[in-house]
Design a protein that fits this description.
The protein is 20% helix and 26% strand. The chain has 179 residues and is α+β, with helices and mostly antiparallel strands.
Length: 179
């Protein structure tokens, strides 16, 4: 069934219109939920090796070329991003970058999102705490070290527990993998 609508021209002067709040030059404001979602999408694309999508989400704002952007992840096996808080368009994160050699690099900082794109970042690498000889506060660089020491899984509050070992953020680090 087809509906046909006929519009008759108005005989009076048109009423003034207010410009739309958004236009291609001025994207819609970013909400905190949107900003967090965009940052999560960015890292999901990186982890899926969908670098073109990550580039479009914001990578283009961090590198001179697509090739150098992709090359920047050559030694990275997996990125785990933890959203700490969101204040409007600014998302504060910690990032655990597991390297292809098994080592871990930890970053912290902020991403700024506008109109569905990451437009800025202030993220820097933080050094992991030095392993302490104290038995009361052991440090494990990764879960393999914790397993070798016979202490895995580790629960939040226990000596040796650290957020970089707790990938899903549930308070249990180095959980056994059950396929």
């Amino acid at each position: 069934m087809t509906n046909t609508v006929t519009v008759e021209p108005k005989t009076s002067a048109p009423e003034p219109t207010t410009p739309a709040p958004t236009s291609p030059q001025e994207p819609a404001p970013t909400t905190a939920a949107d900003a967090s979602s965009i940052v999560r999408q960015y890292f999901a694309a990186i982890n899926a090796r969908d670098y073109r999508r990550a580039w479009d989400i914001g990578g283009k704002n961090f590198s001179d070329s697509y090739a150098s952007f992709v090359d920047g992840f050559a030694g990275t096996a997996q990125d785990t991003v933890h959203i700490l808080r969101t204040n409007g368009a600014t998302v504060s994160v910690t990032l655990e970058a597991t390297q292809t050699d098994g080592s871990l690099r930890i970053f912290e900082g902020t991403y700024t999102v506008h109109g569905g794109t990451i437009v800025g970042a202030d993220v820097h690498e933080v050094t992991a705490p030095e392993p302490q000889p104290s038995e009361s506060s052991p440090y494990y660089e990764n879960c393999d070290e914790a397993r070798e020491a016979g202490v895995a899984p580790l629960y939040e509050g226990e000596p040796g527990y650290a957020p970089h070992l707790d990938r899903d953020g549930d308070g249990v680090a180095c959980e056994p993998y059950v396929p």
